[in-house]
Write a structure and sequence with these properties.
The complex is a heterodimer. Chain A is mostly helical. Chain A is built from 14 helices and two strands, in the order E-E-H-H-H-H-H-H-H-H-H-H-H-H-H-H. By secondary structure, chain B is of the alpha/beta class. Classes of the chains: A mainly alpha, B alpha/beta. Chain A: The chain crosses the membrane at residues 77-98, 107-127, 133-154, 163-185, 252-279, 291-309, 321-341.
Chain lengths: 348, 318
């Protein structure tokens, strides 16, 4: 049933094994994403027809319609896709790395690190601070925390179990710092910080897309090439070593990849939670494959979740524009409870 | 910059039809410098979009009915005192995330935003229409001057400012006579929320009180906006000769106020002992943030201190 296609180069230098089901699911999800994006492009305060949208995309002009579609809707939709895909991929890599289905960027402290840094920045800058530096600062926070977690969890190499425990602990501490800063902030700053903490794609612009895209373009191919080592690791440390996989080196690489993906996504969209947790689980339900095959599917599911969440926030309560994070949490929180429930039954 | 603008104008004219040239030639161009750059505005904009409460208030004072405004914080969708002037206006959602598409569809001539809220969307706003952003959200006079210039209503703006100045002078004279030795009076601005109390060190109300000649307790003379208090042990920090309190009309807020004001420390405050505690309107004192709100605040002060207020004219609503 699980047919596979194998592509080989002539001299056998490389080969790619493609699972037919993975391919099928990827194509279906990609098509769904493309259709959803076009539909999302047509809806807004003033719905526009599909022909208008396609016409503007093909031949942009100077009208208000072009401004709305090309400068307001399109970058925002692209950001939803990029951020969702980055978070879904980061979650998959982390869950594979620590071999725990409940791991995700927000559980092990990466998101908390970015949040604390962002809120600190907003607090220090107050009203006069420039917002262009917010994203790099948040990303810096994510990396510093990841470094801290690794250093604290280091015991002759990275031990995944310690990684999770230290991460959860640090996340709790950082949440306390964030709350303290919020209490100290004046209303306007606190409100900006709250919106950031919920995660919002409002007012995403082309420069955001251009800043975020390179992170994915570097991390993604690297992950696709290297993820087979995660499959080896999932069979146990001895097995991975026996198969000739550099255990610690790869663990470090995967951690860096997950932090870069999650950190950059969160830096530009705010602390959107749950996608990193849910998307990999949904991917595993759809296909039974190694991590390489799961990666595009988890990424596509992440992109779809955020695209729809942002779409609802943007259109359902016009003229109010609500942060996408609210709706992601709306689906994410029940799913998390369901996962806990299922895990307990499986283990008990 | 003016030279550059006129050069641009000539270049544009070269590519325009004669009718269009006539139109451009008769439309004066104003260049307005603001907190985030410069805006080039043609003519006297009538289609104004206001993205924060102070700008909405100021637009109404200048005699402009904005085509789009953001929702108010309380008394939604718009504060009672502005509602009549804003009938049929288009609402653009919340001040924090206004509906950009709707702003674009309205095709405004001028957008007024706030620095702390709309900095990130400023590049988009500027592409929709000339956008001005005042430097300090609490300086209602600077806002008035900026908007008067941007909308080509400088005469009206000056009239409003002179009128305000006269009222301030009158109030100062009368209160000095009334309080005699107790003037200048030391006053504190307090607010209660559902889960905490606040002392305001800065902000709109404080700036108006400063201008009127009131003083702040030494410990309240700080650069920051104020402080949030969660423990009733900090009640002595609220002490002053007189206290102004604004709070929203909400049962939870009222409960907090009742708890705090029945505390022994509260009863020990100077202002409480001398019965100089005034409850004031949160909308005029803390949210309106424009010239009309300032005038309404002054009205309340005349009333609280039981001063005779001369008939005043000039501002429709003031």
């Amino acid at each position: 049933m699980n047919r596979t296609l194998i592509l080989r180069s002539r001299n056998d230098r490389w080969s790619v094994k493609l699972n037919a089901r993975v391919l099928l699911v990827t194509v279906v999800l990609a098509a769904l994403l493309a259709i959803s994006s076009v539909l999302a492009l047509t809806s807004g305060s003033h719905p526009t027809s599909v022909t208008d949208v396609l016409g503007t995309l093909v031949a942009p002009n100077q009208s208000e319609l072009a401004l709305i579609i090309l400068e307001i809707r399109l970058p925002r939709i692209l950001m939803a896709i990029l951020v969702g895909a980055a978070l879904g991929s980061a979650g998959l890599i982390l869950q594979g790395l620590v071999r725990n289905p409940l791991a995700s960027p927000d559980v092990i402290g990466i998101t908390s690190g970015a949040s604390a840094a962002a809120v600190l920045f907003l607090w220090l800058g107050g009203i006069t601070g420039t917002s262009l530096l917010l994203a790099p600062v948040a990303m810096g926070g994510a990396f510093v925390v990841a470094l801290g977690i690794t250093a604290l969890a280091w015991q002759r190499g990275i031990s995944p179990a310690r990684l999770v425990l230290v991460g959860v602990g640090l996340a709790a501490g950082l949440t306390a710092v964030t709350t303290l800063l919020l209490v100290l902030s004046p209303d306007a700053t606190a409100m900006n910080a709250y919106i950031w903490l919920t995660g919002s794609l409002y007012a995403s612009q082309w420069h955001d897309v251009i800043a975020l895209a390179p992170w994915l373009m570097v991390c993604w191919p690297l992950a696709l090439i290297k993820l087979r080592h995660l499959d080896a690791q999932s069979m146990g440390e001895e097995m991975a070593l026996g198969l000739g996989s550099a255990l610690q080196g790869h663990r470090l690489l995967f951690l860096v990849l997950a932090v870069a993906l999650a950190g950059s996504a969160v830096a530009y969209a705010g602390a959107i939670g749950f996608i990193g947790l849910i998307a990999p689980h949904m991917a595993r339900r759809l296909v039974n494959s190694g991590h390489t095959g799961l990666l595009p599917i988890a990424a596509l599911i992440g992109a779809l979740i955020l695209l729809y969440a942002d779409w609802v926030g943007r259109v359902a309560f016009i003229p109010r524009d609500l942060p996408a994070g609210i709706f992601v949490a709306g689906i994410g929180a029940p799913f998390f409870v369901y996962l806990l429930y299922r895990l307990r039954r499986e283990l008990g | 910059m003016h030279r550059y603008a006129s050069f641009l104008l000539i270049v544009t004219c070269l590519f325009q039809s004669p009718a269009a040239i006539a139109a451009i030639a008769t439309t004066p161009v104003t260049i307005v410098a603001h907190a985030l750059g410069e805006a080039t505005i043609a003519g006297h904009p009538d289609r104004v979009v206001s993205l924060y409460q102070g700008a909405t208030d100021t637009a109404v004072a200048l005699g402009i009915k904005p085509i789009g405004v953001v929702e108010s914080w309380t008394e939604k969708p718009m504060y009672q005192y502005l509602r009549e002037a804003l009938q049929g206006v288009t609402y653009l959602g919340l001040e924090t995330q206004p509906d950009l598409e709707r702003i674009a569809w309205l095709s405004p001539d001028l957008i007024v935003g706030a620095r702390n809220r709309h900095r990130t969307i400023y590049p988009l706003l500027k592409r929709i229409a000339p956008t001005v952003i005042p430097g300090d959200v609490y300086d209602f006079k600077a806002l008035l001057t900026l908007m008067a210039k941007a909308t080509g209503r400088t005469a009206r703006g000056e009239e409003l400012l002179t009128h305000w100045q006269e009222r301030v002078e009158d109030f100062r004279t009368r209160i000095r006579q009334k309080l005699d030795e107790q003037w200048p009076q030391e006053v504190a601005i307090l607010s209660f929320r559902a889960d905490h109390a606040r002392i305001y060190y800065g902000g709109f109300a404080r700036s108006v009180l400063d201008e009127l000649g009131f003083t702040a307790p030494a410990s309240h003379r700080q650069e920051s906006w104020g402080i949030k208090l969660t423990s009733q042990e900090s009640i002595p920090a609220m002490d002053a000769e007189a206290v102004f309190i604004f709070m929203e009309d909400d049962p939870a807020v009222q409960r907090t106020f009742n708890t705090w004001s029945s505390h022994p420390l509260w009863k020990n405050l100077k202002a409480v002992r001398h019965n100089d505690v005034y409850q004031v309107d949160p909308v005029t004192w803390n949210m309106g943030a424009g010239i009309i709100a300032a005038n309404r605040m002054l009205d309340e002060l005349y009333q609280h201190y039981d001063l005779h207020q001369p008939e005043h004219r000039g501002c429709i609503q003031c």
